[in-house]
Amino acid sequence: MEIKKSPKANLEDKRLTFVFMGLIVALAILYTAFEWTQREITVHEVVNEDFLVEEEIQIDQTFQEETPPPPPEPEEVPEVIEEIKIVEDDVETEDVDFSSEDKKDEVVEIKQVIIEEEEEEEEIEEVFVVVEEMPEFPGGMQKLMKYFSDNVRYPVVAAENGIQGRVICQFTVWKDGTIRDIVVLKGVDKSLDKEAIRLIENMPNWKPGKQRGKAVSCKYTVPVSFRLQ
């Protein structure tokens, strides 16, 4: 015989509802437990402040007068007895010849005093960087480039290794036109740098720079190009 159950009597469908209800009840209990706290009771004690006021006592500061020490007794000054010596008048003195006549036969030797001249300090030459009229190679920049191309000796080591480039040199053109203080600012190779210095050393005198119409020493920068053909 088959047992038939009524759908209303089946509790399996209401299991989820009961679980939610149980969770709600549990949360409500926890919330009540956290909110249930004892309140602190503060007791205010009234104290009479009249007893806490300290009585101010005024103390007058007194100074004790110090008695000055007695003055020192004056020292006894010994009596000074002057002794007078009597000098007799019969003391002989040497005669001094005050004759001012010139002696004609006497030869007077006059020594010449040599005064050493003080060495004059060398004036420090002022070297300019930029002047009103810059130094110039005889004939101008084109003649300078022609001088380099006609007098260059390309180093064999640099030519065999295919080394070429531009060496930038700086030197000072003095007010007399001579070239000094040659420095390589940017080099390419030791052999090329050396050749560039040689070319600059053998240059003829330049036209010096001028500042306010006066010849002055001035620095000058020039590139020396090395190219293989």
Give a description of the structure.
The chain has 229 residues and is an alpha+beta fold. The protein has a domain at 127-226: TolA/TonB C-terminal domain, CATH 3.30.2420.10. The protein is built from four helices and five strands, in the order H-E-H-H-E-E-H-E-E. Strands 1, 2, 3, 4 and 5 form a five-stranded mixed β-sheet that branches. The longest helix has 21 residues, at 15-35. The chain is flat, with a radius of gyration of 60 Å. The termini are far apart.
Beta strand %: 15-25%
Oligomer: single chain
**CATH evolutionary superfamily of the domain at 127-226:** TonB
CATH topology category name of the domain at 127-226 = TolA/TonB C-terminal domain
Low-pLDDT segments, ≥5 res: 51-55
By DSSP, the count of extended strands is: 5
Q: Radius of gyration, Cα only, in angstroms?
A: 60 Å
